[in-house]
Design brief:
- This protein folds into two domains: 137 residues, D-Maltodextrin-Binding Protein, domain 2, CATH 3.40.190; 109 residues, D-Maltodextrin-Binding Protein, domain 2 (3-Layer(aba) Sandwich).
- Helices cover 43% and strands 21% of the residues.
- It has twelve helices and ten strands.
- It has a five-stranded mixed sheet. It has a five-stranded mixed sheet with strand order 7-6-8-5-9.
- α2 links the parallel β1 and β2.
- α2 packs antiparallel against α12.
- The radius of gyration is 21 Å and the shape is elongated.
Length: 257
């Protein structure tokens, strides 16, 4: 029985090599990534595995600071994705990752209740009295980005805009899914999320009001091979595929630039 298993594994390895795939050396590679990129990365993993016979990728998604904490604590990790610049810099300074590569950009937008009953037309309307806002927690990428966004908006909506906006915040989401859930269940009238949160069924259950591009900005998600990876050849192949035109096409399907 053991001989049969050995021959089968060897045959798969030879087939992968012959097909130009990357040989699996020491079991699956592990990807740690923020939850804001879970859906496109899940699709990319499936495509990557289908193109590399014998390759296996395990993914763990969580809040950006939590997955970074796992990396820093020495949890198994072959590929790491970051959506917070300070954590990217920290990972580099601590020698936890190889060189970063841009992976995708997340663009903020305003999610409102289906039918837009309050007739919200732009970011400035979120400062109007009586608008209930759900906002990402400060430790999340969307929460940090929202704080920066409302400060930038002073030039368009006046010095008191951040104060008025924050006075309307009635709930904080642990991530963008928390924000979308609060708008969907009626506990909030609007929330700042990413465009990638509003696709398919999500957009059918709500409505979207775009933020002016010159004000909106974006968040850059970056990807890198972890220095502690036990299978750097396969990990590098995954990073290469994710940042290739084929991988980027998957992100574009999810409204990620």
């Amino acid at each position: 029985m053991r001989r049969a298993v050995f021959i089968s594994a060897g045959a798969a390895l030879a087939a992968a090599t012959a097909a130009g795939g990357v040989a699996l050396a020491d079991g699956p590679i592990v990807v740690l990534a923020p939850v804001n990129s879970d859906r496109p990365l899940t699709d990319i993993i499936k495509e990557f595995e289908s193109k590399h016979a014998g390759a296996s990728v395990r993914s763990f998604f969580g809040r950006a600071d939590v997955v970074y904490g796992q990396l820093e604590a020495g949890a198994p990790c072959d590929v790491f994705v970051s959506s917070l610049p300070d954590l990217s810099a920290k990972a580099t300074q601590k020698g936890l990752v190889e060189a970063w590569r841009p992976m995708c950009k997340l663009t903020p937008t305003i999610m409102v209740a289906k039918g837009n009953p309050l007739h919200i037309t732009g970011l400035g309307d979120l400062a109007h009295k009586g608008v209930r806002i759900s906002m990402g927690a400060d430790v999340t990428p969307v929460g940090r980005f929202t704080n920066a966004l409302i400060k930038r908006a002073v030039k368009d909506y006046g010095a008191d805009f951040p104060e008025k906006f924050m006075a309307n915040v009635v709930s904080r989401g642990v991530n963008t899914k928390g924000v979308t859930g609060q708008v969907n269940n009626g506990s909030a009238d609007a929330g700042i999320v990413f465009k990638s949160d509003l696709i398919g069924d999500e957009l059918q259950r709500a409505a979207e009001v775009e933020i002016a591009p010159d004000l909106a900005g974006s968040i850059q998600n970056e990807i890198a091979v972890a220095k502690a990876s036990t299978n750097k050849k396969l990990a590098q192949a995954f990073v290469d595929f994710t940042t290739s035109a084929e991988g980027q096409a998957v992100f574009h399907r999810y409204r990620l630039d």
